[in-house]
Fold this sequence. Notes:
Blueprint (H helix, E strand, L loop, with lengths): L3 E5 L4 E5 L7 E5 L5 H10 L3 E6 L5 H4 L2 H8 L2 E4 L4 H5 L20 E2 L5 E4 L2 E7 L8 E5 L2 E5 L2 E2 L2 E2 L9 H12 L7 E4 L5 E2 H7 L7 H4 L2
Bound molecules: zinc ion (2 copies).
Amino acid sequence: MKPLSLIVGALGVNCYIPYCEQTRQCALIDPGDRADRILGLIQRNNLKPKYILLTHGHFDHIGAVNELREQTGAQVGVHPEDLAMLTDPMKNLSSLAGVEPIKVSADIMVEDGMTLQVGNIRLKAIHTPGHTRGGLCYLAEGVLFTGDTLFAGSVGRTDLPGGSHHTLIKSIRQKLFILEDDLTVFPGHGPISSLRQERISNPYLQGREELEWE
Length: 214
Ligand SMILES: [Zn+2]
Ligand SMILES: [Zn+2]
């Protein structure tokens, strides 16, 4: 499966659109800004959004949610531990970032292991706390959407409220590195990678000491 993607907002969030080629149903992962461009891409490709799936509650990932939900009727899914961030501009950091304060509500609580069906594709949610408490990755055929948990050659920052570096590394090792090596990694910012590449060369994930703490 190869998602559509576009880069939106001042912080350059990757908004991904995995879709079913047969039914044209799609999901919008992290529509952080520019609802107009996202809608244009959906329309040009004749897609019908079923879900808006948030990898976490930071403002840079949620800025276009309200408009897209209104325009498409798609249901918004978030992990319950990041729910409070959506409705509170202090918690989603929009009120500190010099952008319009953002308040978003959710329709579906997405828990670890839940599968969301989008046409003939299945997106499986994996709870990976560490960047935020309710961080989620989404696994589909051949692809892994990692939000701000795992980047090409880096990992998410953990100095914001709810962040924990130890928890983040543990999430990546115990929930992501057990998956197939040849998954393409689609991160929330920056270029794509593969799980194999990150396991081999990501400087934050070398050595075994983090595992031995457990
Ligand atoms: Zn973030
Ligand atoms: Zn981000």
